[in-house]
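Notes from hallway chat w/ T.B., transcribed later so I don't forget. T.B. wanted the structure written out for a chain they're using in a teaching module, and asked if we could keep both sequence and structure tokens in one place. Agreed to drop them here.
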Amino acid sequence: MSRITSRFGAFTPAREVAAGHDLTGRTAIVTGGATGIGVETARALAEAGAEVTLAVRNLEAGMKAAAEINESAGAPRASTARLDLSSLASVAEFAEHWGDAPLHVLVNNAGVMACPQSYTADGLEMQIGTNHFGHFLLSMLLARALMNAAEEGRTARVVALSSIGHRRSPIIWEDTHYRARPYDKWEAYGQSKTANALFAVGFNARFAELGVTANAVMPGGIMTPLQRHLPREEMIAMGWMNEAGEVRQGFKTPEQGASTSVWAALAPELEGVGGLYLEDCAQAEPWDQASPARGVMPHALDPEEAERLWTLSEETTGAIA
């Protein structure tokens, strides 16, 4: 199969990607939808007519974001519900509230990056616990709702936010949660982003024939609240900004960063297609040392690794396909 591309590019605004789509009567959930690329993903979908639920930890921030989206959409299409992905009980409560009502698009957008060593309410390392295991359980508990939204010739879609950070680490099976090895915040982040990509491979393998496809997305470099754990000095040292705090050329705005998520959710060229890693509104090319900030590494799309992660995820969350 030839590489899938689109007429959009790295800096296309999400609204432009959604333009021309009539999402009237369709539903979407965007985790982490109160800020950053999450709110811009939700905005683009709502302005195209979708009923969008912002699944957020901070209800006050979520309600404020929903009000702003409704104002720009000119209709009450965005609503808010509480979801704490670092608590499997909270995930179960959210999914129970949704029930089996048809869900056309699930965007697993929320995440934590490079935080100090800490653990979720269920004793999982915070980054993979939140970024992967929380979203795994959410997706599994909403699988029936997603299948109920599938139509002839039109699948429901799951969008899993990954990152070029996946290059920093595959899944370390011997000590996934850093109980014995020294904690490295960037390695842990990389492992969690590899898990997000492998989740899309595993989910798609199980649900594509049931009318639900899943793809992973690399949104690009964007300054959002995701950087809350990074000191300014570290971001300067990494070359993300200069001494004056100006973000380096090549970073995207939040709306530009949301474009690949929206493309993954709506693109006709992705109808019935899943298990891919997407970036800049196209299927990513293989990672190459010459362009280290782009592309996808083999370990993030390995079907055997995806199966191993799936088994671990079922054991960890209790959710069985």
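Follow-up for T.B.: Residues 241 and 248 are 5 Å apart (CA to CA). Might be a good example for the class.
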